[in-house]
Amino acid sequence: MIHLYTHNDLDGLGCGILAKLAFGEEIEVHYNSVARLNPQVERFFDKQGAGEKDVLWITDLTVNESNSKKIDQFVKAGGKAQFLDHHKTALHLNEYSWAKVLVSYDDGKLTSATTLFYDYLLENEFIKSSESLNEFVELIRQYDTWDWEKNDNIKAKQLNDLFSLLSLDDFETRMIDRLKNEETFSFNEFEQQILKMEEDKINRYIRKKNRELVQTFIGDQCAGVVHAEMYHSELGNELGKENSHLDYIAILNMGGKKVSFRTIHDHIDVSEVAGRFGGGGHVKASGCTMTDQAFELFVKEVFPLESSKLDAPKNQHNLKNNPSGCLYENVKKEKWFIKQNDNKNWVIEHEHKLLPISFPSFIEAEQFVKRQYTAALTRDDQYIEYIKNNKKNHS
User: Fold this and answer.
1) How far apart are CA 299 and CA 279, in angstroms?
2) Which of 206, 193, 311 is nearest to 251 (CA)?
3) How many angstroms separate the CA atoms of 299 and 45, rounded?
4) Are 185 and 139 in contact (CB under 8 A)?
């Protein structure tokens, strides 16, 4: 019997679907959370023992040092095992003959566990390629790596949305049947209807959570912290874009005792952030369990803080990047006025007094105000009142 242990997200499920298409009843697929994998692998060895004929495959999840040694002993004793992963935090396992960890292909395209497993099955002639299968695998890759956003491939995001709407068994059954019987991959009419409803729901959820976002410094990095149990990928990405002055977004799932980290910035590696708390993952999307240290930093210390103010959305006068100036305010009603001086540098007034600092661009000046003072763009009426008072003070 072949045993596949894989993640219970879309990428992990893609591996399970490929395995069942290739082997049918000859394979037993075990879907696991990050925390459950290592106990499950330990159970496999306790039950089977090294030297048995059972085959062990692991995809999209990383085994610990103890299980790595068990797998190595199993292989050296004649057992068959294959580990496939695409997370940077698993690269150290490449020292083993039975492991292949590849973050990106030679052409720079990011990998996913599903693409690596598909490559493996094709190379060993366990499965035959088809147009629908090729597209299905690529949709999962683009969603998991966020290439879908860069490529404007909404279909990849919709595939994950559908996965979140259906039970695991229902989604798996639908996909296997579709990939067996249809030449091209598409959503049926019912699925398209519920996907549209889901999109509206996600957008409402993101707007709600943006109002609840709390800003704080964790070490020398400025983080946005929010409590949420759903739509972590979409939420982290959209909150990151809406609050680009933040280094990363930390999404707390208290029921699941997990923390998800997301960033939109190329200079931030959230797998390193997650690694500080025993977790890991991708450069721009990672996670960890809620350790005591994580609870202290992201929950206990952040809980007393007020949610960040949002930029006024429909201004006609108080506009960003205005050389004449734009006004920001924090929850304490303190004000900062960003404007361009005669030297074309951007300077900041605080309560009508010039700060001893300047910036070459508006973006840098705004980032300073938002990061250091948690301030947001004010409404037009506040801006006009500030300008009037400013003129009075200088008359």
Assistant:
1) 17
2) 206
3) 38
4) yes
Q: Which two tokens stand for residue 80?
A: 């068959």
Q: For 89, phi and psi rounded to 5 degrees?
A: -70, -5
Structure tokens at 274: 């997650």
CB-count burial class (<10 Å; 0-12, 13-18, 19+) for 200: exposed
- 267: which 2 tokens? 């200079």
Cross-strand bridge partners of residue 339: 347
Q: Are 14 and 114 in contact (CB under 8 A)?
A: yes
Q: Do the beta carbons of residue 250 and residue 274 sit within 8 Å?
A: no
Residue whose C-alpha is closest to residue 122's, from 106, 134, 108: 134
Q: How many CB atoms lie within 10 A of CB 70?
A: 20
Distance of CA 239 to the CA centre of its chain: 11
Phi, psi at residue 332, to the nearest 5°? -85, 5
36, 40, 254, 272 from 295: Cα distances, Å: 21, 26, 10, 17
The letter for the amino acid at 18 is L
138: which strand partners? none
Residues 374-394: what's their mean pLDDT? 87
How many whole angstroms from its chain centre is CA 276?
17
- Cα 116 from Cα 121, distance rounded (Å): 9
Please state the pTM of the whole predicted model: 0.75
Strand order in the sheet with 258-262: 214-218, 221-227, 248-253, 258-262, 285-289, 280-281
Q: Which residues contact 256 (CB under 8 A, 6 or more apart)?
A: 229
Residues 336-365 have pLDDT tens digits of 999 999 999 999 999 888 999 999 999 999
Q: What pLDDT is stored for residue 53 in this prediction?
A: 77
- Angstrom distance (rounded) from CA 337 to CA 54: 68
Element (H, E) at 285: strand 285-289
| Cα 292 from Cα 5, distance rounded (Å) | 28
Q: In the structure, how many helices (H) and strands (E) does the chain have?
A: 14, 16
pLDDT for residue 52: 59
Residue 343 has a CB neighbour count (10 Å cut-off) of: 8
Least Cα distance to 225 among 160, 315, 302 occurs for 302
The pLDDT assigned to 393 comes to 62
Q: How far, in Å, are 59, 74, 99, 202 from residue 77 at the CA level?
A: 22, 5, 16, 50
β-bridge pairing 27-32 and 2-7 = parallel
